[in-house]
Amino acid sequence: MTGTVGADQRPVRGLQPVPGPQPMPVAPESQPVLGPLTAAAIFLVVSVKAGGEPTVRDLLPDVAALARSVGSRVPEGGLTCVAGIGSDVWDRLFGGPRPAELHPFLELAGAKYTAIATPGDLLFHIRARHMDLCFELATQIMDRLSGWVAIDDEVHGFRYFDERDLLGFVDGTENPGGRAAVAAVLVGEDDPAFASGSYVIVQKYLHDIRAWGTLPDEEQERVIGRTKLSNIELPDGVKPANSHVALNTITGADGAQRQIVRFNMAFGSAGRGEFGTYFIGYSATPSVTEQMLMNMFIGNPPDNYDRILDYSTAVSGGLFFAPPAGFLANLPDPPAHGMAGARGEARARQAASQDQADGVATATPSAGGSLRIGGLKGKANHAS
After folding, report:
1. 54, 219 in Cβ contact below 8 A?
2. 291 phi and psi angles, rounded to 5 deg
3. Where does the chain have alpha helices with state H?
4. Residue 110: strand pairing partners
5. What is the pTM of this model?
6. What are the catalytic residues?
7. Tens-digit pLDDT profile for residues 288-302
8. Alpha-carbon distance 185 to 279, whole Å?
9. Would you kindly state where each structural domain of the chain is located, as residue ranges?
């Protein structure tokens, strides 16, 4: 009967409604760290002059909008920019917490070769399918920073034939993809204030192409650890322990491989006889990349250094943190007056005290394979 509540329609007292499915937490948005390899890139490293902090703070929230504006002129050009911030300038720009593992680039002095540390407060990694887009965005960024920064390095990179470096080998073969790439590159909930950020290490390598060219292909393959034409990793029984591939394969205590994502680019000047590779590696923790560099320059075991260094010289080195997009869009307040200097001095005293306790760690790793400094403290190496 219309308007009558039947017995089967009466509410049952004491029963609570069953909750529906709860929405999954959404991770903060990252900067455009992950993406396909592009045909062109500009790597711009600058140091912030005293008094330039307000200018940098004005620019950082606008970097994404500048990239969209320039990129809209060639929509299919795939223009992106990642902004990274160095340890020394962090406390000059922001109050509040710091990324847990942000520290200056660790100079690694091996018996024969050194991974040098060079100046740099800000990194702008600009990528696109066409160099004109990269150049225009770099111009806009430098116009905003004009007078307040010193240029430490500017490298215009290009894709060389079928993803090869100027040594003739395919570069970036072991980059993970999909969820594995996200896990390898983006900071997780262990540092919630900076989740979806990424640590980035850069190095500029110059190659002795003439000396490299005197090696037969078979010997070049033993240096790299891969076949030159087909890009197949050499079997373990054939691949030398001091090959580039062997020393850059890192496994954790659980036996799983620890990975980074590289976006290396070739660069050079035919007139100056300059042939190089710009290394740029993103990771959720800098300790993975640092372990690779320790293996290369100090050796695993010590003095078993990467043979590629006989033909490639590192002429720069820097470590930066690329904050999540939301951090740049809504910057924390600047530091209170005098706090930046006090925090920097406290970290310097702590680092000096630790260096004294640990000894000259850059020269000799501990028995467990750890440098026992910075992000490498207590992390053993298990390179295959």
Report:
1. no
2. -65, -40
3. 53-59, 63-71, 87-93, 131-145, 178-185, 209-213, 217-224, 244-247, 286-297, 325-329, 339-358
4. none
5. 0.84
6. 171
7. 999 999 999 999 999
8. 15
9. 36-376
